[in-house]
Amino acid sequence: MTAPFLTIAQDTTNEIIIKKSRFICSLFRVESEEQAQAAITKINKLHRKATHNCFAYLIGDHDQIQRESDNGEPSGTAGVPMLEALKANQLHNVLAVVTRYFGGIKLGAGGLIRAYSNSVSQAIEQAGLVERVEQAILKIDVAYSLHDSLLYYLKQANLEIAEEEYGASVIVSVYVDESQIEEQLNQLTERFNGQLTIKKGPTRIHELPYQKH
């Protein structure tokens, strides 16, 4: 089974305070390195007086692009734990920037790792997750005598109807997950004894709320 493509439901900002240091995590949905770098530049300008602006991002269906920066924190105490927090939630196409305003109390390497990791994890929880699913339209040409039966089947199969066109027959357009196309074609053919004419149409990316199990 292919792992779901997960990303954050929305951009968000979340702040936590640890031993008087402020850790402000800004999460962004990004589709390219250019978008990620533009968002990092924006945060650097917004928080130009901050002690550190550390970042991590994952881009691509298989996280082909992975970048992180400690931005002056001890090596491996900020960027890497932030990146690992994104990976732990199986996220894609997400940028995390954690801004730190030093509060005067040193946290030590272990404390920094936990602080940056928790900052990202809490922001992810606040943003919420969505699963991106590729769907195709199936255009089903059905006789009026079978129309009600088809609608009943589609409702039982929990398939979303995009539109219906009425003419000599009815053309019902439905969205089907790409991974279920072959199964649905077989089911429809068997259920209606080959009396339907079905054509595959364009695809779309559909987002569904995702709850971690």
TrEMBL record:
Annotated UPF0029 domain residues: 140-195
Domain Impact N-terminal: 19-124
A Pfam short name: Impact_N
One BP term from GO: regulation of translational initiation
One GO CC annotation: cytoplasm
SUPFAM superfamilies (alphabetical): EF-G C-terminal domain-like, Ribosomal protein S5 domain 2-like
Xref: InterPro entries: EFG_III/V, Impact, Impact_N, Impact_N_sf, Impact_YigZ-like, Ribosomal_Su5_D2-typ_SF, UPF0029_Impact_C, UPF0029_Impact_CS
NCBIfam families: IMPACT_YIGZ
Family in the record: Belongs to the IMPACT family.
PANTHER family listed in its UniProt record: IMPACT FAMILY MEMBER YIGZ, IMPACT-RELATED
Name this protein carries in UniProt: YigZ family protein
Species of origin: Limosilactobacillus mucosae LM1
